[in-house]
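When time allows, look over one protein, given below as sequence and tokens. The question is which stretches look regular and which look disordered:
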Amino acid sequence: MAINNTQLPSLTIITSPQMRDNALRFIRNAIITNGINANPNTALTSDWGILAQAFANETSVPLNNCVIACDQLMPDTTSGIYLDRWLNI
């Protein structure tokens, strides 16, 4: 039986601009798919762009805190007092 030495996938931190761009892409595709507008204005200065930026600003911090917390709680990625906790179990 062969041993697979590939690295385990890790959680990635999504930046606020990446979240904003993902939201704008989703909004643009939804507007086009539903036939509302063939060429919607989803520029950064549009209402959609401002809303997407506000959404990204508010959700990026808690989402990234979840990634950090997961790293602290998993025995293969933790360190410091969190590793001590695992070693005491």
